Amino acid sequence: MDEWIVLAVLLVIGVPIAAIVALVMVLGARGRIARLEADVAMLKHFLAKVPIEALAEARPETAGAAVDAAATAPGKIPETPPIPDPAAIAAREAATDDIATPTPEAIAARAGEHDAAPEFADAPIAAPSPIAAKSLEERIGTRWAVWVGGLALALGLVFLVQYSIEEGYFGPAARVVFGALFSAAAIAAGEWMRRGERAAGFLARVPAAPIPAILTAAGAAGLFATVWASHAVYGFLGSGTGFVMLGLVAVATIVAALLHGPWFGVLGILAGYVTPMLVESTTPNPDALAGFLLVVTVAAFAVARVRRWRGVATAALVPALGWGAGFVDLFPPATLPEIDLAIYALGVFAATAGLLVWSDGRLAAPEGDRRLDRFGLAALAATSLLVLVAYDGDVGTLGSVVLIATLGGLVGLAWTMPAVAPAVVIAGSVAVIAVVIQDLDVFRSLVDDTLAIGTDGLVALRPKVVASFLGFHGAIAAALTAIGLLGALRATPQADRTAGWFALSAWSAPLMAVVVAWGRVSGFEGNLGFAAAAIGVAFVQVAATVRLVAKESAEAPSRAVAAAAVGAIAGLGTAAAIALDHAALTVALALMIPAIAWVHGLRPVPALKAATAIVGLVVLGRLAWDPAITADLGTTPIFNALLLGYGVPALGMGFAAWRFRSEPSDVWRAVIEGLAVIFAGLFVLAEIRHVAHGGRVLAPDVTLVETGLDVATALVLSAGVRRAAAVIGGRVLAPAAAVLGWLAAIGAVLGLGIATNPIVTGRPVGATLFGSLFFGYGVPALVAAATARGARRAGRAPAIVAATAALAYGLGFAWATLVVRRIFQGEILTHGASDAEMWAYSATWLAFGVATLAVGIKVGSKPVRLLSGVVVTATACKVFLLDLADVGGIWRAGSFLGLGLVLIGIALVYQRILFPTEPPPDGA
């Protein structure tokens, strides 16, 4: 009984207040309309009777002075002129009847006079006075005081209710009534100040202080809290009644944003979407929740559409999607929430399309492209994902209906509004994701014992299920293909960008649907049926290319032609990938790269650069997924499956980089050039690993030979890429060459010096001259020396030449040292050194130093001569520190004798050749 009493009290209070507010609004609007109508009527009658001569003789400066005086009068706002008396208007008309109507000749003469160029006074125009900055006092008094005051008012109402509860002054019903009264009073005061003379006289001068909105917001918050307390605290209102009343308050607050601004709408949106969390019910009803959320969403979208507030639309869209994502988990399965979710998702999509996106759509062919509505496209994509969540709920025919309706809405918007033409691509993406997430009813097929087990042992499908699955999604793919082609043809050539989006959707969605269906039905094993479907897509795109070329404009290349041509290439590549296996799949994908680059040469559409780069990334992902290409590579060097799996992508991407060399340097060209370097490096590295491990490219260890050849490869690639950078240009190749050089240096120091050093690992090194030591240290040294020489001849930076030469020298020095160790210790180099071996080290190092000095003298290079000095000095330190302590007998004597002879010889060379002294004069 108390519930109905409280409800009656709230209705008794709310209905009169709403009526009074509505009456005030209507009366005020009527008064303003009447005054405007009278003013317009008076001006019409006056202008109809006044001749041109009278207008020319008017004194505008008098009127202007009067306006200026009125405008500058402090605290004075011009009053609305009174409604004229009909009798006065009739008298004016009678008085003006005697004025002669000017003849056409007089009007023409007067017009000729006014056609002459006006003469302007030479007086300078006064500069506008600067706007004074607002002081801290003004900000505090006009802005902060209002916002803080509104917050204080709302908190005051809360604290007042708390105090009354603590002191026990009023019973629960009285508290609810007083809360409603205070809230209604705040709302009425805000409306009165917004519409009354005080708002016109005071608030018009303080636009930064929304006092009426603050009062109304405080009242709305208080009313919301009052209704919630009536339900949750005191139990006066049941779940259904409280739910409805909270929703009404929230929706009313959203609508009030039309008068008070966007932040007011956000307040109502928060209240609306929080309401279901505040109401607890023992019998949850998904129908009621879905309907309530749709009402709140539609109201918010409608307000956002009227005022063009995208912030309000976003504030409503995000929680609407959030409620949809967790909708099913809020209810027990017996209530079938999946059905309500499907209806709710379709409703949110329809509201988004109709209220946030739709604007002046036309069925006729577009006359030109429009600026893309990025917000609308993002909103459509987000709501489409919600539809897919509902479709994944397995609601049978209803899910299919919702999916088709969503696809139809997306296609319809793209067809009628060029600003959202990419919506047709969104439709294709939604269709492909639907193929991915649809349940194929595997377990029922197992029970029926009509098995067609795939290669993974898990996919067991009845033929009827497969036919239904392929038929439904095949029909959608065919429809999207037809719509895409028709849309491209109708938009070419006048709306080239729009035509490009439709042409892209005509093959991307069907082809991806074929690939996904192939994986789900055949487990990505070779299947001629799906390959035939991909070939069908390719043939359709070939025919579309021919038709679009006929409609193409001669002034600019058509995006639609380029998209259709790429679609034909993609269809053939996909067919080959489905029909073939292992290395053939990679080759089929890689051949698309030069084909797209070739199409770009015929139709230089910028989007083809992005398509080339994306296909290259797909090929790179394919290689990362299966680096071995095939299970059995064999042991034949070079001529194996790696040559196709890695060599074709390297050649294709290299051709694409060369083809795009004249294009502006952007991120897609940078990706193409980077992929060309990566594929070339991967090809060589894969072949090296194949040779080093006897065909096992996935072997877990790294050998000395492999590391040395990798270092040599990095040096060669660095030199080649640097040369390509000089020819092609771009912003990637030169940095890539530097990176490859650093990788070679790091590999030499860490790899050859530590990780695979035979003294550290203890692995056998094979033959003395042409074993692992030669390929691990000798080959990289020779390559580094050749690279340094080439860099010096090409005029590279001296630092690059010196660094490469130092790397060559260090690797050669290590090779010679390790060869000496191999001679004395055999294939295992981890034993201790004998006296003879220590002497051999000294002799070898001194020979290296002398040879280095000879080269430095021949080329006239001081750095090379200094390097020889470093080697000889290091050898001298070794002789005096190590040989003197550890070596004995003839070998110690030999070390010192050899060192002495070499040092004396070097001194003679310096004295006689490098720095000769002048002979003393005769008789000195």
From TrEMBL:
Sequence intervals crossing the membrane: 6-27, 144-163, 169-190, 202-228, 234-256, 263-282, 288-306, 313-335, 341-360, 372-391, 397-415, 420-437, 465-489, 501-521, 527-548, 560-578, 584-600, 637-658, 670-692, 733-755, 767-787, 799-818, 838-857, 890-910
Classification via Pfam families: DUF2339
Keywords carried by this UniProt record: Membrane, Transmembrane, Transmembrane helix
InterPro entries: DUF2339_TM, UCP035905_mem
Keyword Magnesium: no
PANTHER family xrefs: BLL2549 PROTEIN
Protein's recorded name: DUF2339 domain-containing protein
Lineage of the species this protein comes from: Bacteria, Pseudomonadati, Pseudomonadota, Alphaproteobacteria, Hyphomicrobiales
